[in-house]
Amino acid sequence: MNTPLTRRTLLAGAGVGAVAAGLGVRPASSDTPRPRDTRPPNILLFTVDDMHGGSPGCFGGRADLTPNIDRLAGEGVAFHHAHVPIALCQPSRSAMMTGRFPHRNGAEGFEDIADGVPILNELLHPLSYLTGILGKVGHLGPPDRFAWDMSVRPDTQLGMGRNPADYARHATELFDRAKAEGRPFFLMANSEDPHRPFSGSDAEQQRFDKDELATIAEPSKVYGPDDAEVPGFLPDVPEIRQEVSQYMSSARRADDTLAAVLAALDASGLAGDTIVIFMSDNGMAVPFGKANVYEQCTRTPLIVRWPGVTGAGRVDDRHFVSTMDLFPTLCLAAGATVPEGLDGRDLTPLLQGGSQSGRDRINTVFHESSSDQRYDMRGIHDERWSYIWNAWSDGSLNYRAENMQGLTWPAMRDSTDPAIAARAQFYLLRVREELYDLANDPHALNNLADGGAPEALARGRAAMDAWMGSTGDPLHDQYREEIINA
Fold first, then answer.
1. Which tens digit of pLDDT belongs to each residue from 409-432?
2. Is 96 left (phi over 0), alpha (psi -120 to 50) or beta?
3. For a tag site, which of 48, 321, 347, 378 has the least CB within 10 Å?
4. 363-484: CATH topology
5. Rounded CA gap, 273 and 229, in Å?
6. What's this model's pTM, rounded to 2 decimal places?
């Protein structure tokens, strides 16, 4: 068995190119045409924490849940096949800010990006960009390399990351400074919603003290169990309906925060010169929804509004894109030289309404939980099929992660319904390979890897083998020995 890669053993694969034709992302080219005038655009990157890709109304969710996300989608491009490379907060953000998979940037879990791997901030600073971050400050490192000009941690200054007015106030400070200094800005505004503890939950009362609770804003709309739209990968039982409704209230407050920051941008007079990006760092913090490689774990509601480039109200439901693609796209927009050997690929042609070949599938990974337990997984998804390899599954090791906190997991684990109990047991142990026909099983409930679709399984295996080899995945030899050559 291969030893998992750490940042200290970052492979010579840091310079390995991205996947071969037909396997998703490819290296960016610094000579890609880019639409920009003589002044680089401002960049507002707004992230939400743990939002299911199907939650916003514009992505198929409840129509009244996210009016401001939906409005932004109507002003730009919404990518319906967008994914993060890994469904965990820090490595997801590290991959986005480097354009590289975690095993190629050294940040597989909650560690810093490896020395020598270019970081977006380092490329923007020489171009006079004023950089700021609101929330999630500790989820990007090392701090000295990001060197934010303004950083605000998600404490009482931001209402524990849950107060729209505080986000707007600090965003305005950066916008005003950028105008005063005549500099373009890059603001990464990170809502803590809808991360646990959910709004109105007992866990929220237990997590925060009285003074902290006083700084947290109420959502503009509060949902109850009767309002809950339970994702199809979860059983619809009372405890889960209750928790999903609390999650929805948190999602609504995230939408409120986006509205507040966009209003501040409009008031600054800078909106016409600003690229606005909206995304979630991973899926919903429930079983089968985060910290895995299931399609619903990594799918993100990606929206880009770029005045003069994107047009308004377009939906891209054809191309599979990755948040790693934002790195070369923003480098080119700002006028920075794109580093060699990226896994991300410039999105500009798609933003302009064009097409790109090699975007018919996406690869995703998982390495370790927030408690540093290794659960190596690899996934490859296209419009029809989802293939997963669970390198950790041995029939005895139990999966444990923070997505099992709260009401949902106990409701599944302790259920007297045989089907729910069996699904909970499967979640704990998994099997080595999983294969799902998303056209007929969109929530990945029926594993076909054991003879149910042999041709699709063979294609998934071949594609996984090629991708692991092209990106220098440290488990590639193990995969070939165990799956390809078995």
1. 999 999 999 999 999 999 999 999
2. alpha
3. 378
4. Arylsulfatase, C-terminal domain (3.30.1120)
5. 37
6. 0.93
